[in-house]
Each structure stands twice: as structure tokens, then as C-alpha cells.
Design a protein that fits this description.
The structure holds four protein chains of four kinds. Chain C is an alpha/beta fold. Chain C contains 18 helices and 22 strands. Chain C has two domains: 234 residues, 3-Layer(aba) Sandwich (Rossmann fold), CATH 3.40.50.300; 236 residues, 3-Layer(aba) Sandwich (Rossmann fold). In chain C, strand 7 and strand 8 form a beta hairpin. Chain D is 70% helix and 0% strand. Chain D contains 15 helices and no strands. Classes of the chains: A alpha/beta, B mainly alpha, C alpha/beta, D mainly alpha. The complex binds adenosine-5'-triphosphate (2 copies), beta-D-ribopyranose (RIP) and magnesium ion (2 copies). The site of one adenosine-5'-triphosphate has 18 residues of chain C, from strand 2, helix 1 and helix 15. One adenosine-5'-triphosphate binds next to helix 15 of chain C.
Chain lengths: 326, 316, 495, 325
Amino acid sequence: ACGSSGDESSTTGGDESFVIGFDAYWLGNSWSQQLQAEFEAAAEQYDTIDDVIYTQSDNDVQRQISNVESMMAQGVDAIVLTPISPDAVVPVIRRAEDAGIRVVLAGNPAAEPVYTAMVNVDDHEFGRAGAEWLVEKLGGQGSIFVLNGLAGNPTSEARFAGAKEVFDQNPGIEIVATANADWDQAAARTTVDSLLAAHPDVDGVWSQGGSMTMGAIEAFEAAGHQLVPMTGEDSNALLKKWTELIAAGDAGFDSIGVSKPTWLTAQALDVAMEALAGEEVEQDQIIEPSLITADNLEEYVRPDLPDSFWSNTRMTDDQIMRLFEG
Amino acid sequence: MTVMRLPLGASTRSSLRAGWGLWALAVLTTAGAAIALPAFRTPTSMTSLMASLAPLLLVATGQAVVVLLGGIDLSVGAVLGLATVLVATTESVPVAVALALLAGLAAGAANGLGVLAGVNPLIMTFAAGGIVQGIALLRLSAPGGAVPGAVIDAVTWQAGTVPVAFMAAVGVLALVWFATTQARWGRLLQAAGFASDNARRLGLPVGRVTLLAYSAAGLLAAFAGLAVIARTYSGDALSGTPFVLDSVTAVLVAGIALTGGRGSVLAVLPAAVLLGVVDQVIRLTGTNTNYQFVLKGLILIAAMWLYQAARRRERP
Amino acid sequence: MDTVLLECRGLTKAFGATRAIGDVSFTARAGRVLALVGENGAGKSTLMNMIAGSVAPDRGEVAVGGEPLRGGPAAHAAAGIAMVHQELSLFPNLTVAENVLLGREPRGWLGIDDGRLVRRVGALLDDLELDIAPSAPVSRLSPGQRQLVEIAKAVAVAPRVLILDEPTSSLENPQVDLLYRITRRLTDGGAAVVLVSHRLDELFRFCDDVVVLRGGVKVAESRMSDVTRDGLISAMVGRDVTQLYPPRGRGDGTPVAGLRGVSGDGLHDVTFTARAGAIAGVAGLEGHGQALVAEILAGARAPRAGTVTIDGNPVRLRSPRAAVGRGIGYVPPERRTEGLLFGLGVDENVTVVAGRAVNGGWLRRPKREAAAVDRVVRRLRLTASSQRQPVSELSGGNQQKTLFGRWMLHPALRVLVLNDPTRGVDVGARAEIYGLLRELADRGVAIVLVSTDMQELLGLADEITVMYDGRVTGVLDGASATEEQVMRLAVGEAA
Amino acid sequence: MTTAGLPARRHRLDPHLAVSYALAAVCLVLLGTTTSRGFDPDRILGLLGNQAALGIVALGQTLVLLVRGLDLSVGSVISLSTVVTAAVMDGNPDRIAVAVAATVALGAVVGLANGLLVAYAGIAPLLVTLAVGTIVQGATYVYTNGQPRGGIAGGFRGLADDRIAGTPLPWSLLLWLGVWGIVALTLYRTVAGRRYYAVGANPRAAWLSGVPTTRHSVVAYIASGVLASVAGLHLAAYTGSPSLTVGTSYTLMSIAAAVIGGVALTGGGGGPTGTFAGVLVLVFLGTVLETMDVPAAVQLIVQGGVVIVMMLVNRRLDPARRSRA
Ligand SMILES: Nc1ncnc2c1ncn2[C@@H]1O[C@H](COP(=O)(O)OP(=O)(O)OP(=O)(O)O)[C@@H](O)[C@H]1O
Ligand SMILES: Nc1ncnc2c1ncn2[C@@H]1O[C@H](COP(=O)(O)OP(=O)(O)OP(=O)(O)O)[C@@H](O)[C@H]1O
Ligand SMILES: O[C@@H]1[C@@H](O)[C@H](O)OC[C@H]1O
Ligand SMILES: [Mg+2]
Ligand SMILES: [Mg+2]
């Protein structure tokens, strides 16, 4: 389900050329890295892009605001960014737009519709989708662990809110423990290790994805505990492990990869280029999270690529290889 | 006209002299950046720089007072975050602002009491920071909230390219500097910072000075929360995190000794400006941000090396 | 004028199991100087601290002019009590003027009025005939000058009761004279002065009355004119100290260590020799380079020009460690900052030098260590509650003994360099330390004794090298030298 | 006055140790009584094995604190170590030894840099290790460009996951105890170890007494760097993947563990035995809070509170330390 291709927009753009700004909200895990890589890959396709200005916000809202302002000072035509806080970015986006710069959001929302466009997965929906699958898998009955991302992080809060709605409607489901494991494998592993010791009769794990599901699987295995259904994301590590488990005939495990694709930035660039070309663009482009299940797992898993790869990509194999060769 | 001699104290005058190298460096760097980078001298960039410096200046000023006393405050980030959260979750404007500032004052006073009870400042403020952050997260679990419009109007006002928050921050810094050098409290701060045992034995009001210093740091961190709101228009329990290390860095680059009693709050201004300009230059030149950490670390070590060398020369 | 100004009634203070002061009562009268004497650890500082309010008594009270005092140091100060503490209490990061009026600065429309501050302190210093600039940073002052500033600070409040806890330990003779004049002026003005000192000559000169403490209780009280020197000493120590200085030794051994043509850091072509079996004294007024000589010999400071020699050969001592390796030990003058390992026990403080020599290898042998510590403790008559008592809890004299005892465990000590080793040490302990130094010398160790206490040098040293302005101005034979000869050389006059 | 000797030792339990172990015991009881398999040794030992990284890095931190230092770079070193281990090992069991050697060597180099800057340039430890930590973190980003490469060989993961044959004792716990044993033996039973306390108590006095103080400081920082890299090795084995951020929380946690165990930030007081208790407290308490489903915000509050209370208690126990605080 690819969006508009680069060639079309370059023809419609005439001989105009543009400077684009891209702010990476963070570069601290492989998902955020790939988010930028997808953008870079997409930008290569446009010969109407004169220059791309990259900045990095280190998950710091104020740095992000300064970064956007520095792009404004350098006279960019459009900015693609992933808001770190939906509320905090509104004023600076408004100022950029007022200055004639097209701002396109990728992967996180802003609290007010002051931007040109947003390409996003609804994280509330992301949370719901996994939760619905898990409830059904457990037959509406059972005790579960919840693994959230960073405490206070809006994405984490939104996903959990979505999931919570589903769990609240199913009184048979009991959340026995909620923990913040920061989307991190090590943190998830430690957390689940201790949760498991306290609640050995757990029936399922609702994880916000990232690398946490892998951490949970490892904790179960290390404890010699029968695996249970767990939600996940499109982390290649998880998909590989899952494939292995199926091959080994594991009876307990099943999963669903609710994917928030890293190519959101590529799509956002496409939208930005359309807008610069004077086209009407749809403001809120909410993408249904792709669901990876045992049935379509084969299409996504990439046994030839590293664990830190995120499978739902738009990059070509060449571009992927470059990402992993540094 | 006769020359009027300001009755400024020796400490005040020596603190004016002390930071001249740093002032020169800050001015030269800023001028250099303005000449070399056209984007740097645009009003947008200047305003952005000043707006981002405002909270740092406020937090670092408080940090400087505490470091002068021989302590350190790792809770400033959490206090700043709590202040933004309180403003964003309280409807009435005066109540919101009063609540935020009171919370800062209270957190600072608690730190001061802990330190007076003998808890190491590093540990006391680290632990207190955890508690404050927990409270802030309980009140507002994800960034957002609704900052009263009147607050936003007030804090985002601009005189030309100069944001009011920046002016306020510089004003507060000057005031605090003046207090640390010209008020009795400041003199006691330097004395107790250098040798608290001595001060105690002499019956100097070490307790009051300590309490006041930490309370000031808490209050200024809460103030900084308002300056952050001027940029983010929202509350965020985690929004102060970067200021912890940044404020310590600014204070150290300013040449204030971690051992207490030596250095000038005024030097925090050129130090913060220097760090802010370097940051802005990295941003505007598109330098790979991965090198940012390395650069920051090297600047810190270089600065400390220079100060250390200077202090060694001073000694007979 | 003889009215009672200060009255202590039944003061009692214990630190844990240690009774520091037990039911002590005494009075100090207007216009008189009261001497408070006693051995190290007798409780003098504790008693004075209670009067100044910095230590709270367990029982008893302090009254000034009949009014009982309550509260801490600030309340006592308000009642007119000022104290010069045994340990210096100035802030080196502030100027002299800032220190003297700390917390009481004159204020103008812009906060502290520095002009008035400097003028006021300047006038005070002039008045006291102290040649110290009010705007000089205290960090630039010599220890003696600091002590004088400390005294000026106490006098600045025009106290009704002035307490001086060993104020002369860093002072030169002329400075002591100055202090004498200052106290007399205060008493003439109707104040009472309490003076704690271990320098007996001084006490007889300064004081009108005397109170003797022993083991925390008052054992004697009388007019100064009614006691003799020997009587005072035996009241203090509970036995007779007939001989302070041991008999002199041979004093003509072979050169072991020395300096040859050392210059720089204020020294000019200093040559000096320490001989095996002899005590080599280094005399001079404070700050004329004697301390540098000690530090260079100890490896704590490298000479800019010239050499250190050992057994006649030039050597480079890169650090005290190198010196220790060659058998040179050092007892620094500032025991708190340079000598003691605070927070650690007597045992750890004593064995730090010995290390493997006592243990015989890498691993510690606790029994051997304990036995070694025991030997030192007995030999020095060191008083502590156990080998592991933190040295911070010992009295100053016992702390000093600990420092000294450290070097008794050196496996091959050849030279012991001491800088003011008996500062603030009571007469009994001093006799013991002198005896030990002589004993070490008799065993062949070369002793280098840097001291500002001229009596000590004249009584003990086999040879006295006198310094002035970084130069050696003369070398005198210890047995025949007179105080006058030493003094002339010390002020730069030819002998 | 007599020439009586002194009793050699006070037969008294160190009050800091008594309090920190009492607190650890309380947390253990809480842990045991609030969950179903409560005191099952298998569970408790497993739990401790999983936290070997914290236990080990806290021992390094203790050594540095003893000589009046502070190591804020351990978090960055831990992260870098997981990255380097994975890159060198590249999933190949034959390369385990090389990877371990390379990682430990790197930790030693960072420690050496810290030590040299503190001991020779005379810069405050807080600053040196803050700056060096920042540089190490930056270097990790530059080296990986954000994408750690390589992988952890399956065999190596046994270090974290396996128990010693026939016992409920995890290898990782044994590793931690082994490191504790070495540190404790050095500090308590060797002449050189004793000198660490001398350096911490008064560096100038120790130097004047001929103790090689700079060498002791440098060695302490090297040990801290090495132990941080060992913690990184354990985490790499534990999670099976490299991470740019996994070490972050360990910096302040290691300091917290040491001070809860009675180690003085002013140097010369406390030791590995106390630190061990400090880690137990943090691990048991954290587990209790987590399994009782206490919200993250409340966990922060409780942990902060415990640290403050412990510091107040330690302060009460040791008024002598006040003067040096
Ligand atoms: N804070 C304290 N804790 C424990 N013991 C103490 C404390 N202060 C004093 N002592 C003990 O009380 C006794 C009296 O000490 P004090 O310092 O008053 O003696 P002093 O007469 O001043 O001796 P010196 O001549 O050495 O100055 C000593 O045994 C000392 O060890
Ligand atoms: N932190 C402390 N803990 C325990 N005792 C202390 C502490 N600080 C000081 N003391 C005690 O207080 C007393 C007063 O200290 P001070 O520095 O006056 O020593 P002093 O005994 O008078 O020394 P000197 O022999 O040199 O006259 C000392 O006896 C010492 O034992
Ligand atoms: O979607 C997640 C993203 O939001 C987070 O930052 O990193 C991990 C991903 O799972
Ligand atoms: Mg005394
Ligand atoms: Mg005394």
C-alpha cells in the first residue's frame, strides 16, 4: 500500500526546488533510527529537493522547538517532524505555518490542527487492536501483564488508554500487573522476571511492542514457564522468534504484530512535496495499523536481516543494507 | 561631575573581574557565529536562542547558589516539571502560578532541611527529585493539560525580538548575583559554603542560609517552569529532565567551584550563552548530532582544566 | 573593678562514655585574666566551648553579670562573650575585613557598604597595631597573621568576656607581646579574659588567677602569684615533671640527609645537613622558609634549584613516598588537614606507614598489627578507649602522639622530619615526646626539628640552623646557643 | 598515667551494616509475604541473579566512593559494553573470549581516563565522570550510528540464564558474589586495601605518609570501569541484544545502593558488605512495588523516600561524619 511515488511529484513540481527540514525526535533505539532512515531513503528519490536539513531532538521537547526554529531561520520550505509532546509543538508549528512553511507530522499528533498534514497511526487504536486480539485469544477470561513504554510518554499513555477501554469492557480479564519497561528489551526482561515469580499463573501479556515482547518471551523461557499469548510489534527479532516457535510446535505462544510503520516519515515527505507542489492534501492521514498474525507472518519476517530491523518498511534492500552497515 | 564610587563590596568587584575571560569567549563566539552563519543572525534564530536560554538561566542561577554553598541540586528538573504540570492543571490563573511557585519553594525547603539534617546533597536532591517527579506524574500522567490563556499571554510577550522570559531571567540572575555579593546573606553563603563547620561553630545562621539557598533554587526552578510554558504552552512532568545536567554544566563552566564558597553567579550568564550558542551553531551547521555529546564532554573537560590550571597558579 | 563577670555553676559534659567535664564551677572577674590550664584532654576546650555556647552542657549553667544564658553561640555572643577557638575559624575565601565583621557588616543603600566595612576594620587593626591590610584575602596570610585576625575579630565586638583557647600556638614572640597589650587593654576597660595555653611562661606573664583542670574536674584554683611553676605542673599532670628536656646526645654522627644549594619558592641557596644520632634544629620566625626545608626533605615539594642529598649523594625525591622508601618520615604541622586520617581509628592511623613491614606481605595479619599498635600506644602513653577509637575523638595531644607513633613502625627509619610537633601539646606529653626524639636519635636516627618555639630548640637541638628570608643566616651549637643569638640571626642580623 | 595498652577491637557490630541488613530483611519479608511463592529460594536466588549487573556496578562505585570519588560514567560504559560485546562476538560462540576481553579492556580504558583526569589534572570527579560519560555515550552513537550491530552467541547467554548444575544458584549470582569476594578480600584483608581507606579519609595525609594516593585513585576508577563493563557483559547475556540506553539507570542506582549500605560520599567509610545490602534493598523493594502493581509514579515516591530515610538513619549512627559532610 504505497503512497504517491516520487517521480510524479517531481514532474508536477516543475523546475522549482526545495529545502526540507527533518527533525528526528530521538535516535536512541532502532525504531527511531529506522524512522529517519526511511525518510532519507525517500528523500533520495526527489531531484527537486535541493537540500535536507537534519536535526535531532533527543526526546526533549524544548530542543525540538529550537530545532524547528533553527530550520525556520534557515528558510526551509517544509518540515517533517515527530512531535514529542502533542501540546508543546503547537505554538512553533503555528509560527512556521504562518511563515509559509509546510509542516507535516509523522508518527505523533499535535493537539491542534495547525499543521499542513499529519501521517500517523492512531496509537489509541494501536492499543485497542492488540487488546482485542488478546481478549479474544483468551476467550475473555484470564489474568494478564501490561507492559507500557516510558512513563509520561504520550504514545505510551495513548496506547494503554486504548487497551484499557477494551479490558474494562471485559470483566473476565484481570490486569495483575502494569509496568513501564520503556520499550526496552532489558527492562522488559527484568520486569517480567519478577512479575512472573509473583504471578506464575498469568495467561497473557499485553505489550506495547517495541522490543518489550522479546524481553517477555525470554523471561518466560528462562523461568521454564509455558509461553502465553503476547501482543507485539513488527520487530524483526520478534518475528524471527515467532517463526521459530511455530516451527518448534510451541503450543502456548501466539502473537499479533500491531505495526506502527517506520515509513510514516517517507509518507510524510511525499505529502509535504505534494503540498509544496500546490496540491490539496488531506490533513489527517490516519493509517490503519497493519496487523501481523500467524497467517501473514511469512510476508514480514526477514531471517536474513538483523534483529533490530523493523519489518514493515518501504526501503529497498540496498537501502536497508546501508542502514545496517552504517 | 565627581566620580561617584559605588559602595560595592570587594566580593562584588572581584566577581566582576573574575569572569572576564569567559565573557570575552562568549562575546567572541556569538559574534563569530553571527558573522559566519547568516541564519544565526536572523531574528527567528536570535529569539529562539534567547527563549531557550531563559529557563536554563533561571535553573542555573538557582543551581549556582546551591553550588556556592557547597551543595548541588539534582531535583531542579523534577521541580520544573511539577511547576508546568501545576500551571497546566489549575484553572484560576493566580492560584495556578501561586501553586507552582509555592511547590518550588516547598521542594527547595525540603531539600534544605534534608541537607541540614546531614543528608548528602547529591543524594538528598536526587531522591527528592524522584518524589517530586512521582507527584507530578500522578497529577498529569502525559504531557498536556490546559495552561490558562492569560498565563500564556503574559509569558510569551516579546519586546521586538527579545522574549520577556529572557529579560526576566537575566533580571533575576542579576538580582541573585547582587544578593550573593552585596547582602549579608550572600556573604554568609560564601562563608558557610567554604567551611560549614566553621560557620556553625561561630554561631552563624548556617541553617537559615542553607534553607534559603535551597528554597531559592526550588523557587527559581519553578520560575523556569513558567519560562518553559512560554515555549510549550503545556504541562509536562518530564520537561525539566534536561535541565539537571545542563544547569550543572553551566555552573561549572561559569567557574563556580563544586567545593563551595568560590565563584560568581554573574558568570553563569556568559557560560549559559556560550553553551547555547555552541548548541545553536551545531544545529545550524548540520553537524551530525551524534558528535554533540562528544563535543559537550570535551568542552566541559577543557573548561575545568583551564580553571584548575588558573587556580593552581593563584596559589603561592 | 573586681566584680564577678562570668560565673560557671556545676558544668558537666560527657561524650558518650567519656566524662569530659564533671561538675566544674568557677568565676572570672572583671579586669582580670584567668588562666585555665591542664593536660591535653583535661577538658579545657570543652569547658570554654560551653561558655561560648558552641557545646551544650549536660548540666549546670553559665551566667554573665548574674544573668544565666540560654541558647547557642549567638545568644552567648549577644551576652558579650567572644571566643577565639583553638582551631582557626576564619574563611580563607573572604578578605580580612569581611571575616572580622562577618554577619555584622555595615549596610548602605546598596546592601553591604564595603567602603565603611574596610575603613572600620582598618581602624580596628590600626588600633591594635596590627600591620595587616583589611582588604587582603585571608588565604594570603601566614598562620600567625591569621591568628591575630582571629583575635581582632573577637576584640571587635568589645566583649565583656573574652575566651582565648591557645591563641599563641602560631604566634612569634613580638606577636605574643602584642596580644599581651591587647588583653591588658580589655581588662583595663573592665572585661574578663580567660586564657588557655600550654606555654607556662606566658601564663605567668599574662594572668592574675589560675584554674587547673585534671580529668575534667577542677583540682586547683588560686592567684597566679601564689603558685610556682613546678607546683602548677604537678597540679596539672598529677606528678612531677622534673626534666622537660632529656640530656643531650653525642650529636656528631655522619651526615645522612640534607639540602645542597636549594633555591626557589622563596629559598636562596640553602644548605643544610642532618646527622645520624643528632637532633638538627631549624629555627626562624614564621614564614622564613623553614617549612619549605621540611617539605623538601620529606619529598612533599621539589626544589626548583639545588639538590637533596642522601648519604652525600644527590637524589630526586619525587614524592613523600620516595622519601619514605629511603627511610625519611615526616610529621606535618597541621595535624587536622595534613596528618590525621579522620574517621579512621588509632590503629589505622598508626599502621598506615608500616603496611607490609608489619604484616610481612600483601595480606593483613590483624594480630601482628594489633601487637604493633600496642607497642606504640604503650611507648607513647597514648590515651584512647580502644585501638579502633576514631582519632577524631581523641584530644589534640593524643592526636599528635598518634602522628608521631606512625613513624615508630617504619621498618628502617633513618631521618624523621618534624614541623612544630608539639604545638598545643601539654607539658607532660611534651616531655615524653622529647624523650622519644632523643631516644630515636640515640638509636642512630637523624632528627630534623623545625620549630617556632625557641625554648624547645634551645633545650633539645644539638645544632640549630637559623633562617631569615629564605636564607641560612647561621648555624649554632645547640648546647651553647643563647636565645639572643638565635633571635639576632632570625631577624637577619649577623651573629 | 599508666602505660596500659588498649583493647585491640571493639566487639561491636557496625551499626550501618546492622541497619542496612535489617532493612533488606524487612524488604525480603515484604516480598515473601505479598506474593504466592513468597520465600521460595529458587525464586529469590533467580531474582538476585537477574540483578547481578546492579550488584557488580555498585561494587565498582563503592571503590570509587571510598577514595572520595564518584563515577557518573558507569551507565554509559554499560551501554557501550553491550554494543561492543555484540559487535565483536557477532553471534559467534568462538568469539566469546575475544568479545569479553575487548569489552573489559574498553571499560578499563574509560576508567583509566577518569582516573588520570581526576588524579593528575585534579578536576572534580563529578565533573570528570560526567564529561567522560557524555563522551562515551556520544562515542557509542558515533560508533553505531544508532544501529548496534552483531549479536550475542547463544552459549554466552547461559551466563545470565543458567543455574549451576544441580543447584538453584544462577551463574550470574555466582559472578556477582565472586566479584564481591575479590573486592572484599582486597579491601578488608590486604595491606593495599587498607590504604584505600586511608586515601579516602584524608588524601593529603595519606600522601604525606607515603601512600601512593594517585595510584589508588586511578586503580579505583579502572576497577569501576572494568566492573561496569562486566555488568554490561551480564546485561548483554541477559537480554541477548545490544542497547544504546540500557545502562542509563544504573548510574544513580549504583550510588543509591552504596549509600543505603552506609558508604560515605565523603570517602573512607563503608564497604562492599554494606553495598551488598543496599542492592538487596533496592532489588527486593523494586520487586515488591512492581508485583504489587504500584503505579510507576508511586514507585518513584517510595524509592526516593526510602533513600532519604536511610541517609537520615546513617547520619544518626555516625555523628563523626557530620563534620566531613
Ligand atoms: N565531641 C567529642 N566526642 C568524644 N569525646 C570528646 C569530644 N570532645 C571532647 N572529648 C573528650 O573530652 C575530653 C576533654 O577534651 P578537651 O578537648 O576539652 O580537652 P582539652 O583540655 O582542650 O585538651 P587539649 O589541651 O588537648 O586541647 C577528652 O578526653 C576528649 O577526648
Ligand atoms: N567530630 C568529633 N567527634 C568527636 N570528638 C570531637 C570531634 N571534633 C572534636 N572533637 C573533640 O573535641 C575536642 C576539642 O577539640 P580541639 O580541636 O579543641 O582539640 P584539643 O583536644 O583541644 O586539642 P589540643 O591538644 O591541640 O589542644 C577534642 O578533644 C576532640 O576530641
Ligand atoms: O512504536 C514505538 C515507538 O513509538 C517507540 O518510541 O519506540 C518503539 C516503538 O515500538
Ligand atoms: Mg583544647
Ligand atoms: Mg587544647
